[in-house]
């Protein structure tokens, strides 16, 4: 049965009306029965899959689209990342790409009619030695050439922007300077997922949660359909947006990927008074932190030292993280850590994503995002949608094609993203 | 914490080891570009039991073959790689 009820727009007026009448809010997105065929099937209801569906519908008028999610939407990396966005990457292709993403994030709330709580706090990457200071100078110059606001600052400015950071010579690795990137910030990641889902749904996209793809039908080198736990769907186009599980899904279509799955752990403290405005990253100490609007500190580190599909936390992580955070902000020593969790990252050999076509016609991938999938989601969705609609690889994603590993044309993103935030 | 039962040193924390990824045989020098490319980049990335290589850097400094379940992190076999080839 088709559900044709329109999704009401959120506004100040709707908020007042709702509070006066006391009626329940209507559901943000609808339930649909699985159709026997779709023009496009997107596997993975995370921020990448939903963004792709949304831009397909909005920019290209392709609305007969299904997003298939084996759990609930945003249950993977989309709801587990540390919600940091920035565009000060080292390579020209990387910075152009993420700059577009940041641009989309900035007006996403308007675009989706959903408050995604984007806070442009500024993004600060600390340098603890001469060589990282040198790399930062390099990054700042690459960024400036691309028109991205990025500069190296000294300890005086660090103290001014983030007074809680210890810039004295007490720590084992004293802070010498920082790369300062004012357009960076944090976004409420769940809101981004919900906003894309709601907007895509209102344009006619079907979101199927609790539905797992168990097989992909390929005939004569072309995708013909997918088999799900809810039934078979025939479709000429399948997009794999499944991050940590992307090799398992691609294998269903017979496409091999150069990806390994690694857990990345993060943690959050109890809420305290606001004392830290910018996002602070230390590559040398492998830690990044920000304080949420509610007052909790959110911390993340680098990926776990071995591959796994397990999302269990480890004591080594909690210990190491606490030690490193206290080096940066000794005033947090009495703040309690309340939770740690882990998400799965799809790591590629060159730390760059893999977006575009595969040897199987009609089977597309938007995977390999590793530790920075959240930052790239809007632009990846937009560009993947453009690729699906036009059949032409957009310039922004051309460097990230799967065949770069055959051509030996790897992207050099590791230098800027070894600590991917 | 992951405990690895090193055949030379006994049960040790995984921190002492470095992870070398899934165990793959190096192709012969004359097998062509395609197999070398696959050897370099393509991964099984199994969800389940995986045969992998670990190096006991802070112990016996031997290369070990480990069978580990990548979903549960259970380990069911650890042996010196030299044993496997002998």
How would you describe this protein?
The complex is a heterodimer of chains A (421) and B (86). Chain A has helices at 12-21, 47-60, 92-106, 108-112, 130-145, 155-161, 189-202, 246-252, 315-328, 373-390, 404-407, 414-417; strands spanning 40-43, 65-68, 84-85, 123-127, 151-153, 177-181, 185-186, 206-208, 213-219, 222-228, 231-234, 238-240, 260-271, 279-282, 287-291, 296-303, 337-347, 354-357, 363-367. Chain A is an alpha/beta fold. Chain A folds into 2 domains: 35-81 and 189-258 and 350-417, FAD/NAD(P)-binding domain, CATH 3.50.50.60; 119-183 and 260-344, D-Amino Acid Oxidase, subunit A, domain 2 (D-Amino Acid Oxidase, Chain A, domain 2), CATH 3.30.9.10. In chain A, the strands form 4 sheets. In chain A, strands 5-6-4-14-15-16-13-17 form an 8-stranded mixed β-sheet, with helices on both faces. The longest helix of chain A has 18 residues, at 373-390. Chain B has 86 residues and is of the alpha+beta class. In chain B, the strands form 2 sheets. A 4-stranded antiparallel β-sheet of chain B has the order 3-4-5-6. In chain B, strands 1-2 form a two-stranded antiparallel ribbon. In chain B, strand 4 and strand 5 (63-69) form a beta hairpin. The N and C termini of chain B lie far apart (32 Å). Classes of the chains: A alpha/beta (421), B alpha+beta (86). The A-B interface holds A 245, 247-248, 256-261, 305-310, 312, 314-316, 349, 405-406 and B 1-2, 14-15, 18-19, 21-22, 37-38, 40-45, 47, 70-73.
């Amino acid at each position: 049965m088709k559900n044709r009820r329109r999704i009401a727009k959120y506004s100040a007026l709707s908020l007042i009306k709702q509070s006066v009448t006391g009626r329940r809010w209507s559901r943000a997105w609808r339930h649909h029965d699985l159709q026997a065929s779709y023009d496009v099937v997107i596997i993975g209801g995370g921020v990448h899959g939903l963004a792709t569906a949304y831009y397909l519908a909005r920019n290209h008028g392709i609305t007969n689209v299904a997003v298939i999610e084996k759990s609930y939407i945003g249950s993977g990396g989309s709801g587990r990342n540390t919600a940091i966005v920035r565009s000060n990457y080292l390579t020209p292709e990387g910075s152009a790409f993420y700059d577009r993403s940041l641009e989309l994030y900035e007006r996403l709330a308007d675009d989706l009619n959903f408050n995604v709580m984007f806070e442009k706090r500024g993004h600060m990457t600390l340098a603890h030695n001469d060589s990282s200071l040198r790399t930062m100078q390099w990054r700042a110059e690459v960024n400036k050439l691309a028109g991205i606001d990025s500069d190296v600052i000294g300890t005086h400015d660090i103290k001014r922007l983030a007074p809680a950071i210890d810039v004295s010579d007490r720590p084992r690795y004293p802070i010498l300077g920082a790369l300062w990137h004012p357009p960076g910030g944090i976004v409420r990641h769940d809101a981004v997922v919900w906003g894309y889902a709601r907007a895509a749904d209102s344009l006619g996209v079907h979101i199927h949660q609790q539905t797992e793809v168990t097989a992909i039908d390929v005939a004569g080198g072309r995708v013909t359909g997918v088999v799900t736990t809810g039934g078979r769907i025939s479709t000429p186009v399948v997009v794999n947006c499944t991050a940590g599980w992307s090799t398992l899904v691609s294998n269903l279509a017979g496409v091999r990927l150069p990806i390994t799955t690694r857990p990345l752990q993060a943690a959050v403290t109890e809420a305290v008074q606001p004392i830290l405005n910018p996002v602070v990253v230390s590559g040398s100490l492998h830690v990044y932190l920000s304080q949420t609007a509610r007052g909790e500190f959110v911390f993340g580190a680098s990926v776990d030292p071995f591959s796994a599909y397990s999302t269990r936390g480890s004591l080594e992580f909690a210990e190491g993280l606490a030690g490193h955070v206290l080096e940066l902000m000794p005033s947090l020593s009495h703040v309690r850590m309340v939770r740690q969790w882990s998400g799965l990252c799809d790591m590629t050999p060159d730390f760059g994503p893999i977006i575009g076509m595969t040897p199987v016609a009609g089977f597309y991938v938007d995977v390999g995002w590793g530790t920075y999938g959240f930052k790239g989601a809007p632009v990846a969705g937009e560009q993947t949608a453009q690729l699906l609609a036009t059949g032409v690889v957009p310039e922004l994603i051309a460097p990230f094609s799967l065949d770069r590993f055959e051509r030996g044309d790897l992207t050099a993103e590791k230098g800027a993203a070894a600590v991917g935030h | 914490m992951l405990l690895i039962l090193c055949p030379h040193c006994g049960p040790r924390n995984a921190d002492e080891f470095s992870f070398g990824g899934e165990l793959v045989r190096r192709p012969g020098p004359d097998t062509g570009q395609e197999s070398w490319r696959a050897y370099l980049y393509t991964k099984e990335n199994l969800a389940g039991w995986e045969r992998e290589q670990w190096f006991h850097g802070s112990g016996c400094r031997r290369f070990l073959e480990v069978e580990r379940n990548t979903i549960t992190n259970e380990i069911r076999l650890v042996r010196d790689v030299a044993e496997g080839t002998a």
